Amino acid sequence: KSPPKSRGFLADGKLNLRDYLSLSKIDRPTAKEFLPFVIPVTTTSIGRISGYIAMSHVASSTLGTFDMAAHQIIFSIFCCLTPIVDALSQVAQSFVPSIHGIKAMSQARANALRDTVNNFRKVGTMFGILLVSLVSMIPLISRYFTSDPLVMQRVNGAIPGVALFLIMHGLMCGGEGSLLGQKDLVFLRNSYALFFFTVPAYMLRLKYRALAGLQTVGIGTMWAAFATYNVIRTAIFHVRLAQLQRRTNKEVQ
Questions:
Q1: Which of 45, 89, 139, 150 would you call most buried, defined as having the most Cβ atoms within 10 angstroms of its Cβ?
Q2: What is the C-alpha to C-alpha distance for residues 102 and 229, in angstroms, rounded to an integer?
């Protein structure tokens, strides 16, 4: 018989449609262990989605027909590439807690935690390079998505922003997963709550400036802004990890 945690929240380990609707089937002690993750993880997901929604809104309401078509092509390719490294966050959440959860504060624990986070940084960097190499092929494959040369021109104009976003994406996922693995939940919750408002606000500012004739906004401008957000997010996560590592080192001195 499998242990309770491997069976999830269900008290008897059996899964059917009625169990989803019955609170009596929930193993409450196990559910309480996951409760602190609900708000941070939910905020993380909503914070990510808000940027995509804001981009699509600006593209459909502000940009021209050619830019809108190019955005659909770029976004489709983007959604195919990001899952390659999205799992890095889940992997970090699996490895880091086994080290961070050790109660005995020792130098070996601090070194293991530092080395694990650094390894995820290395893997994230390698995946970022891989994604950029795939992005560089977009000019070669864009003709399979459209035959319109103006749309292809705008697709190519978005490539620098997409490449900048994706080269940081592995580092971002590794950093995010490492923070979740160290249960730095309040920091992540507050970060994504801030991103939830700031990223759409900036995208709507682009929309306002474009409609007011104050700035020429195209798909390249929009993706460059989104890439800047990812660079800032990645830097914030890894600065926080460095801060946590210094705190861990002080605890064993």
A1: 89
A2: 34
Q: How far apart are CA 25 and CA 28, in angstroms?
A: 9
Chain-centroid distance, C-alpha 64: 29
SS3 172: helix
* Crossing angle for the helix pair 28-61 and 65-81, to the nearest 10 degrees: 150
DSSP reduced 3-state for 23:
helix
**pLDDT per residue as tens digits for the range 153-163:** 999 999 999 99
The b/e string for 10-35 (b: 16+ C-beta within 10 A; e otherwise) is bbeeeeeeebeeeeebebeeeeeeee
**Cα dist. 237→114, 149, 218, 232, 240 in Å?**
15, 40, 29, 9, 5
Q: Assess whether pLDDT exceeds 90 at residue 168.
A: yes
Type of residue at 174 = G
